[in-house]
């Protein structure tokens, strides 16, 4: 009975926060944007950033099936950084200033009155540069997780790879992907579902990494590094978003998020190896090599910030 009452109470509270959210400060500079690939741990990291419930938590505002204002975006929309479109700009501004509200976006929010926002997105990687250019003072945190871990999680959930959506976008092909077109088409035609998801991971990380300036336009966090070396990683993260933190945050570090599967592990960063064999790991590395991204992770599957910086500057 206690469990039933707790679940009912949780649903009532969520409905209340969805309905009565009040945003006191609509300056986009009072927002933090957390972006990353789907199944990379963005919800977990958002819980860390918002461990003290300081922010209004805005969940996936660019979801085309949940937010009518962005139903035309699809799942991997690319926007050129120099795009001048007043209607688009106003729609983007509605998110970053917090004026947009609905039951989906505020479904996990736990604060009624707020003057700061944490906006979590997994469908914004290909227009982060546009956001950075139009809203240059918003702090953007970019989360990366090893492609094998992300792919393992996506396959378990039967996610689509969406590679075909990219081939239909002429601008992203022209700007970034034409040199990889044969590989993408070959993977679509003959590749396994594992290979397709690894290819998608490469694309949705390659483009923002090649566009953005590290620690100026955005701050990169490696999921694995945060899991095994939280003290150093949190210090870097909270310094970037200009927020102090205390010991309470450590209870969040070991707590799975609402979107984590029951068989997942935060601290065991190689738990995906139970489902992915050595041949698949080798194939993943071959796909990473196509994009020159194979050195970003060490042989122990830890992110290498020096190699990341080198890759971004090439």
Explain this structure.
- By secondary structure, this protein is an alpha/beta fold.
- The protein has one domain (2-313): P-loop containing nucleotide triphosphate hydrolases (Rossmann fold, 3-Layer(aba) Sandwich), CATH 3.40.50.
- The chain is 45% helix and 9% strand.
- The chain has helices at 2-20, 42-49, 86-96, 128-134, 147-156, 163-167, 170-177, 181-190, 193-211, 223-228, 230-240, 249-253, 278-290, 305-313, and strands at residues 22-23, 31-36, 56-59, 113-114, 117-121, 140-144, 219-222.
- The strands form two sheets. The chain has a five-stranded parallel β-sheet with strand order 3-5-2-6-7.
- Helix 5 packs across helix 9 (193-211) and helix 9 packs parallel to helix 13.
- The chain starts with a helix and ends with a helix.
Rough outline: globular
Low-confidence stretches: 261-265
| CATH architecture assignment name | 3-Layer(aba) Sandwich
**CATH class type:** Alpha Beta
Q: Could you name the CATH homologous superfamily? A: P-loop containing nucleotide triphosphate hydrolases
Strand order of the largest sheet: 3-5-2-6-7
Number of strands: 7
Which fold name is given in CATH as the topology? Rossmann fold
Strand content: 5-15%
Global Rg:
19 Å
Q: Structurally, how many domains make up the residues?
A: 1
- What's the story with the biggest beta sheet? 5 strands, parallel
